[in-house]
Design a protein that fits this description.
Structural class: mainly alpha
Helix content: over 70%
Shape: globular
Order of helices and strands: HHHH
Strand content: under 5%
Distance between the termini: 36 Å
Number of helices: 4
Radius of gyration: 18 Å
Number of strands: 0
Length: 143
């Protein structure tokens, strides 16, 4: 089930980048980012109201590292940067480059066990996957 949800998330991200990019073209990068996050805040607020009592805080503030709260900043920067990329590159190239960056950082995080993650060493056979991704990105950008 998790594999299907992950694939569905990828599809949602493609649609999100398209919608965010169109909003950015209409309102500008910064106003569209504010609008996108206001809609997100309203949406999650409705989810919390509807699920009242069923949502529990599993790890109260103060028991997790402070840097984890920067995820909100990363989310905002992701929206702004994909909006900028969308205008010049389109959806496909923006996502392809984003996936390349995600893959490279993920490999580094796994290999060194950064941020408290389990260490999963890089194996040479993964170079085949990286090469395929890089070839795909180059193909999308050149042709």
């Amino acid at each position: 089930m998790n594999k299907y949800l992950s694939a569905f998330t990828g599809a949602l991200i493609a649609v999100m980048i398209l919608f965010n990019g169109v909003l950015a073209n209409a309102f500008g990068n910064y106003i569209s980012t504010v609008l996108i996050h206001i809609v997100g805040l309203v949406t999650i607020s409705l989810v919390l109201v509807i699920s009242r009592g069923r949502t529990k805080i599993q790890n109260p503030a103060g028991k997790i590292p402070f840097y984890l709260y920067s995820a909100g900043v990363i989310g905002v920067l992701t929206v702004v940067f994909t909006n900028i990329g969308f205008s010049a590159l389109g959806v496909s190239a923006t996502i392809a480059l984003g996936l390349l960056g995600q893959t490279l950082v993920s490999i580094i995080v796994d290999h060194f066990g950064l941020f408290g993650m389990k260490v999963i060493r890089f194996e040479k056979k993964k170079i085949i996957g990286l090469a395929a991704i890089l070839l795909g990105v180059v193909t999308m950008l050149v042709f």
